Amino acid sequence: MGxxxxxFEMSYADIKRDSVAITVxxxxxxxxxxxxxDPFSVYQSTGSDDLTTETIEINxxxxxxxxxxxxxxxxxxxxxxxxxxxxxxxxxxTPVTGNEETTYFKQFSEQTTTKVRLQVDTTMSADAEKSxxxxxxxKSxxxxxxxxxxxxxxxxRPTVNRMIDSKESIVWAGTHKVVELNFRDYVGNADxxxxxxxxxxxxxxxxxxxxxxxxxxxxxxxxxxxEDIFLVNIDGRRYRHNFFKNAYFSGMNVxxxxxxxx
Length: 262
Fold this sequence. Notes:
Largest sheet: 8 strands, antiparallel
Order of helices and strands: EEEEEEEEEEEEEEHEEEE
Radius of gyration: 21 Å
Structural class: mainly beta
CATH class of the largest domain: Mainly Beta
Distance between the termini: 34 Å
Helix content: under 10%
């Protein structure tokens, strides 16, 4: 049984949220790496071992309602995730003691808080430095019940200059991904409601094409891996809806392009 595409609010610790304050117990210079969305940036502790607890604390500077934690490219074995209830730290869920998932996903009871903390005790390889590529703290928007056609598009646009010797100099300024969803003659009301909610948004949101389950794919290709989570906006120029065969009582045909946001 597969998992449909998931959607979340932009991480409340995302680097675009200027008011957020991050504190760490080691590697101060790298503390923003897990919130930058750069796949090549990794936070790693310094001088840690399995007897040393490393803490990452995030102060939102405002109240946020959270229900989801995603740890991308992590090596944590035992850790706990807490929220501040106004007077004390509380576990968002039961502390984890034997994690084996390098991309760990947990949905928990909705909590409203101004700050959270992640405390890591041990790693998958004994006494290794604690490391994580991306730390996402967010709230679920919804998950598709049905399975639209998905197209993952690498829409990078390098600058190409022809040199005097006729060779080309190609300069890559960065990556730009597009996730295209296409429903045909679809009648699921829950997914129609979700599509409408997303189409009416003006703020960016996260899309997780694999929905947290790669077992549903025979081959785990780029775009459908657990670590492939993208901050996107709907490209309004590429949003199209019509009724199947123009019969108003029929299912919907919807094409939507989710374009990676800065």
